[in-house]
Amino acid sequence: MIKKCILAIVLSLTLAGVVLAAGKSGGDRNAQPIKIKSNELFTDNNNRTATFVGKVSARQGDMTIYSDKLVINYSEKDKDVEKVEAFGNVRVVQGNRQALAGHALYENKAGKIVLDTSPKVYQGDDVVSGKVITYFVDEQKSVVTGGGDARVEAVIHPMDKGKDGSAKP
């Protein structure tokens, strides 16, 4: 039971960091600018997309996402972000938390982040992997699914305990 609680905490804390460009509703992160660097930028106003290609890095606050390509879809009416999709060598970093995948998709309206293509989420020495990792932002819940050879795997290291039995970070 304790291991399940620890796993839930690790996943919640780690995947919360993946919210990068989409931003949580009402958070301070939305007020901060997003700085995106890439080798090329292609915009398509008719299809409401901005595509960043080549050594992409997008930074907002203390969080950075790296990928080979980043596509942002925005609404016609108010130009709000509808979805953000990262392709190739996706890495999201925030403090000691890191998510790796071949592909990541954030859907703003659904409030979910989906990592696939060999996804792994790390926090310190702890790691969770599977075929698909889905994080529901508003509910702060995650689902890790396996399939085929990609079974769900979690490696969780116990926390040090002090003499009084309380956990030490």
Automatic annotation (TrEMBL):
Organic solvent tolerance-like N-terminal domain location: 35-141
Keywords linked to the UniProt accession: Periplasm, Signal, Transport
Q: Per the record's keyword annotation, is Nucleotidyltransferase included, yes or no?
A: no
Pfam families, sorted: LptD_N
Record has Signal as a keyword: yes
Any one of the GO CC terms: cell outer membrane
Q: What is this protein called?
A: OstA family protein
